Amino acid sequence: MFLFLFSMILNSKANELEFIYQWDTKPKIVICPDSKVKKEDVEAALEFWKTQGFNFKTKGIYYSDHCDLEYHTIQISDYASNEEPRIRGELGATNVTWISWDSGETKTLETVDVNIPVDSANRHDVIFHEIGHAFGLAHNDNHFIMTPKL
Ligand SMILES: [Zn+2]
Asked: Which of 12, 17, 35, 137 has the fewest CB atoms within 10 Å, measured from its CB?
C-alpha cells in the first residue's frame, strides 16, 4: 500500500506541466492564407490538451485572408523544410510577445506566432506541441508532447 502511493506521487510530479505565460483574455486563433494547417488540426490539438487536463478557451478558429500578427491572437503559418526553423533544434517554432505588470512571475501573452513545418513525419505532434506553447506551456522532459526533443 505504501509503495503504491509513493509511485503515484512520483508519477504526478513527473507529468506536471508548467505555464511560463498565460492569456488574460481568450485569444483568437488565425490561420494564415496558404497554410496547410486546417481548422480541424487546431481543434484536434485543443481536444488533445483537454485529455491532458487543460481546457484552453479561444474566441474561435478562423482562416484569414492576410497574415498580420494582431493583439490577443495566435497566428499560425507554415514553413518549408528548406527553411531554417526560427528556433534551433525544434521542428516547429512559437514566438511570443508578452507584458508583465509587476516583477512577479506571470507574463501575459499579447501575440503568439506559430510556425508549423509542412512535411515532417510527426506534424500532428508538432502542432500539439506548438499549440501547448501558444497557451503558455513550457517544455517538460517527461511529457511526450512538451518534451523539447519531439
Ligand atoms: Zn518547444
From this structure: 12
